[in-house]
Amino acid sequence: MSNIPLPLDPTLPRTENYADGTSVLRSTSFSVDVYHENAVLLAGTLLGSDGDRHRHLKRLEGGLFNPAHLAHYEKSVLAKVVDEELAAIAADRPGDGVPRGDLIPLVRRMALRISAEVVGLDDVDDARLSQLTTLVARLGDGILIQWATRDHAEVMRDALACKDEFWADFVRPALEKRRRRGAAGQDLISVILADTTMTWSDDDILKEALLFMAAAAFTTATAVTHAVAELTNWLPDHPEAREKLSDPEFLRVAGMESLRMHPGRHVLFRAAVERTTMPDGTPVEPGQIVLVDKFHANMDEEAYGGAVGEFNPYRTIAEGTAPYGLSFGAGPHQCLGKPLVLGTAAGRRAEPRDGTLALLLGALFRAGVERDPDHPPVRPDSVHDRYESFPVRFTAL
Question: Rounded to the nearest 5 degrees, what angle is found at the Cα of 267, between the Cα atoms of 261 and 273?
Fold first, then answer.
């Protein structure tokens, strides 16, 4: 049992459907006090805190995703990032003249550049972006330590070395610049510096920054790649949908359907704060780790109808069910960046936002993205549902 990653431990209580998963995530009988091995990375962060601290962090950092900020990210940051990255792809043409690339590093670069803007990391040129990509990937191994199959002490030693490098080369310079400037900014570091409610140590700021970078960048890259994979498999049997590839609303719906099928980590961890029961009646003691099974929640036929294992953007779902399942969690710890990824409806004082997922998909399909017939995708030897490499070509660049 010692070599089995925690999410695969068959002895742990777990939910089996959408309603039960939602119930546990919304319950005050369960907490996020589960990050013990990697507390040096997550303790006290938005992800790793409960109660008053979590509520304050959620209010404070939620402002980063208000309508004005979302408009800025979409119209200024994302548009520029996409144009520059696709221009670089277009400039490198092999013998047949069709630009090629790998979707994983391409979208990861795009997402990291957007995340760096949200966090407030400065001067992220090509060299620093390559360094940042490597650091965030290795830090991600520490953040996901419960999934690791290699020696956990080794994983954490590497993650801590990356944390020190991330501080020295990225966060500390950004922090010092903003302290000297003294002006209010619209990024995570500036918002934290302006906070007068909580006392923030440098390490607190560092952990919050690395959490934002790891969560936003790699989740987005995985979601976009899965959506491209599902759409390119589905479109040959649905040629009428090709004209919808320029419709952000269709791409948003398709992206949410792909997220339902590919929720990233298949389970979320919670710990019982008191003697209680799981929704199915299983008793749990204080401190007991339980698993919210996102994958089975997202494949619940009562919530999502028949053929739940098939990609279907036209799917009819039960009332009150999130079309993306529990892929963003639920309850107090639902992912704060969901409005950035999925967009928002029109409000009294704000235009609707399409979200980075639909916008990135739209840009890729306008560029004529399709699978590279000479180089099939590669999946890693991992318990994660992800691609290690997804070669593509661009027929319209």
Answer: 145
Q: Are residues 5 and 146 in contact, defined by beta-carbon separation less than 8 angstroms?
A: yes
Query: CA dist 187 to 112, 119, 202, Å?
Result: 14, 5, 16
Report the residue count for the chain: 397
**Strands 289-293, 267-272: pairing kind:** antiparallel
Single-letter amino acid, residue 137: A
**Residue whose C-alpha is closest to residue 390's, from 221, 252, 144, 217:** 221
Counts of helices then strands in the chain (DSSP H, E): 16, 8
Place of tokens 């990032």: 81
Distance separating alpha carbons of residues 112 and 133, to the nearest angstrom = 7
Calpha distance 37→152 (Å, rounded) = 8
- Give the pLDDT confidence of 211-235 residue by residue, as tens digits: 999 887 778 889 999 999 999 999 9
Count of CB atoms situated within 10 Å of the CB of 317: 16
- What confidence tier does 27 reach under pLDDT thresholds 50, 70, 90? very high
- Residue-level pLDDT at 1: 40
Q: Give phi and psi for 230, each to the nearest 5.
A: -65, -45
Q: Are 336 and 58 in contact (CB under 8 A)?
A: yes
